[in-house]
Design a protein that fits this description.
With 395 residues, the protein is an alpha/beta fold. The chain is built from 15 helices and 13 strands.
């Protein structure tokens, strides 16, 4: 039994700090580990040697600032994680290792009106197929991240009201997938996972404070504060789509009038173009036509950007993020949408907050949420198993 403050408890705490730093970053040099953890270079060197001897980490030659260095990452044998993303009309699954490498990935169309049981049947089949294709034993799966397009009660795991998967309301996706796969499952909404994905692999890399804005059938924001997703006590933080822009505006699905969503989400915006462009429009097609010079589509995209910018300005004034990443189909519009967003931020945000803010397009496209599901497992899984294995190996 370890006594608090003893040498053994201090050593274990240092092991956990190093393992966590490497797990969160994917790969770090020993100098970067020292800066991240606050440990001395000598202590880091000894711990890395111990973890390497135990098979917990791998060390490979690299360079940093033109000098030779050693990159430390978690061993490929330490385990694999799985990401599952349910969207409006798709199911996407990715398999990755603890060094942040994606080993297998695929997507399938799904019927949004299908039952939750049918959806999980499809998910289980796809997960098992991709794990098999990765060439790694299913016993190596240590956790699954699950993304759903709706609010999740973080205490019970129950899915709340969602307009995208209405047949799923009241279900518990976390418990359902846990029962099927026999490993811990971590669940969150798609906007939060998009934020995690872009933070680890995309346009938000390196940012400790950022907002990921996703505009699709609805409008949501994933908020990263001091490096961690902020969900709020009820799991509903980031509902930027329900900021009121016009109290006399259209009635929103939430019951209020003039929400940001009623000026930006596809269900409200696409009808503006039906008389001139037909009723089979999608947001992706509007973005493509706008890029080709279509004046009506360009105007709609610019208006969406202006309204999003008003919501982003409110976020700036409240939270002062350093980066805002725009995801979904709109990110493909580039400066056609980002220019108006930046103009609105400059007009409505506090000048000091606006000056510090970068507004960027997402880099991961439709992969942001499933990669965020992988990152969710890496964030939540803890280090006990990895540290115990290392400690027992050198005992």
């Amino acid at each position: 039994m370890e006594t608090p403050g003893s040498q053994s408890s201090l050593h274990r705490a240092n092991l956990e700090r190093v393992v966590r730093a490497v797990r969160m970053a994917g790969s770090l040099t020993q100098a970067e580990i020292a800066r991240t953890t606050g440990l001395s270079a000598a202590t880091v060197s000894n711990i890395v040697r111990e973890l390497k001897d135990a098979g917990t980490v791998e060390v490979t030659p690299t360079s940093s600032g033109g000098r030779r260095a050693r990159a430390v990452s978690l061993s490929a044998d330490a385990g694999i994680v799985v990401g599952v993303d349910f969207g409006h009309s798709h199911l996407r699954v990715a398999v990755g290792n603890l060094a942040h490498a994606v080993l297998a990935e695929d997507a399938e169309p799904i019927d949004v009106d299908a039952s939750a049981e049918q959806g999980f049947d499809r998910a289980e089949q796809l997960v098992r197929r991709l794990v098999g294709e990765s060439g790694i034993s299913p016993a190596k799966v240590i956790g699954i991240g699950l993304g759903v397009p709706g609010p999740i009660d973080m205490e019970t795991g129950v899915l709340g009201s969602t307009a995208i998967l209405p047949g799923w309301v009241g279900t518990n996706p976390r418990d359902e997938l846990t029962a099927r796969m026999g490993v811990p499952v971590y669940v969150d909404n798609d906007a939060n996972l998009g934020a995690l994905g872009e933070q680890v692999w995309g346009a938000g890399h390196g940012a400790r404070d950022l907002a990921y804005i996703k505009v699709a059938s609805g409008v949501g924001a994933g908020l990263v504060i001091n490096g961690q997703i902020y969900r709020g006590p009820g799991g509903t933080a980031g509902e930027i789509g329900h900021i009121t822009l016009d109290e006399s505006g259209p009635v929103c699905r939430c019951g209020n009038r003039g929400c940001l969503e009623t000026f930006t989400a596809a269900r409200y915006v696409l009808p503006l173009l039906h008389s001139s462009h037909g009723t089979d429009l999608t947001m992706a097609r509007v973005v493509r036509l706008a890029g080709e010079g279509d004046p009506g589509c360009r105007r709609v995209i610019a208006d969406i950007g202006r309204h999003i910018g008003s919501g982003v300005a409110s976020l700036c004034n409240l939270l002062n993020p350093s980066r805002v990443v725009l995801g979904g189909d709109l990110a493909e519009a580039g400066d056609l949408v980002l220019g108006p967003v930046r103009d609105s931020v400059a007009r409505y945000a506090i000048p000091s907050a606006a000056r510090q803010l970068k507004v960027l397009p997402g880099e991961l496209d439709s992969r942001a949420e499933v990669l965020g599901a992988l990152a969710l497992v890496l964030n939540e899984m803890g280090d006990t198993t990895l540290v115990d294995a290392a400690a027992s190996a050198v005992a």
